[in-house]
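Database export, one record per block. Field names are fixed; values are copied verbatim from the stored entry.
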Amino acid sequence: MTETETTITMNDGIRLDATICTPDGASPDGGWPCVILVHGHGDAASKASTLPRGRRLAGRGYLTLSYSVRGQGCSEGLVHHLGPRELFDLQDVVTWTLRELPAHPDKLAVAGSSQGGWHSYMAAAHCLQVATVVPENVFTRFDEFAVHNGCLTKWFFTRTMRRRILTAGLQDIARQWALSGDWHRVQEAVNAMSPINFVDRITCPVFIVHGWHDVGMPPNEALEMFDRLNVPKKLHIGGGGHDGVDDPDAQKARETLVDRWLDHWLKGEDNGIMDELPVTYYRRPGWDQVSVEAIPAADDQEKTLYLHSNGSLTEAPPDGPDTHANINNVPFDPDYGLADAIADDLEGVPDALKREVVSFDSAPLAQDTETLGSCRFQFFTMPNRTFVQVNAELFDVSPDGVETLITRSQWGTRTADPGKHLEISFDARTIGYVVAKGHKIRLSVSNYDHVYAFPYFDPFVTRLYHDNSHPSSVTMPVRTI
């Protein structure tokens, strides 16, 4: 292949840095099938991360274009954080590619992860020239990415709003709104460009790729987007994603699936990919590949496990009055607050705020049991303040006591009625996970988990009930395998 450096001038005069990878040999009739690759967002992000993929695809007969988004890498301009300006640039890049390069006008794809996944969705919705897209590891609701279930998310403020990014201004105002308590303004500012808002505009085939354990962006939204798409589509959920675990064999299989998808839609190959079940996933922890029609699967059954004051988790609900537990938020350092956590990327949280955990264990399972879908936490509480945050985690506990995280989520509010009962219901991150025979399921409830979200820093106490009148529980979609 031939690799060429170039710049592409946008309609406002900003020049974007780009690299073209052209396969060796004569161009086929009408031009090469072409893939535009867009990198992820970050202070060191650039086209460099997509070039290996561009070179590999060029070796498979694709013309590829890797470009750095404005304000990133060597491209000029300031970042608008997945705003209209980046969309206008994408449209200019697509138009330039079809005008200036030997690309087939009907065989153009856009692919990328994270920020590149957002560009893929935007291309599907706003660039009619695009034949197919492959969005990977990206949110579909920007507002929920920023403030999820009433909690400021760590990823949004420590990665997307990172100070070292050449921002056009959103970072500063987002931090101001966070500190002033105007969290809804943060959501309103970013929600307009959420991919889910444009799902009805998408008419080209879409292959969604996501990682189960993506720390920044849960797979729940990928499932919602997939369900709402009314086009030829495929969904693959497994390894990878932002800081997520992966497996070399799963990574290779994922790459092969995407190659087959592009070969089908851009080269016209009848490789059978559209005859297969639309959803493939890697079942954790063993990385077994499974294909189903949808998640939850048709044979999923709901199993509800109830919390008991003796620390057990059973299918039998409490049968009478019982002692409640407490979720406590106790600052070690009352001078450390949200402003400090935003400034130091939450590094000081463990030394400033005590984390208290209440746990409940099931009996050892009688058989291997898979949960496939989104578990739901249903807690009866009573807070003593207007604000409360509750975090819930499900663990797989081996016979020797080793904990492995299955799934988790958090919930918060700043408008509770102190001293009144408050029923909390929220979904965990979607997962396909097998708890082995003889293992236990552990539910841990705590006041914060700073790996994922910013804590509430003021002290509070909230009661967690588990009696016959207030039966707190977790409901799991399960399959017996």
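Remark 1: The two ends are 47 Å apart (CA to CA).
Remark 2: The chain is about 20% helix and 35% strand.
End of record.
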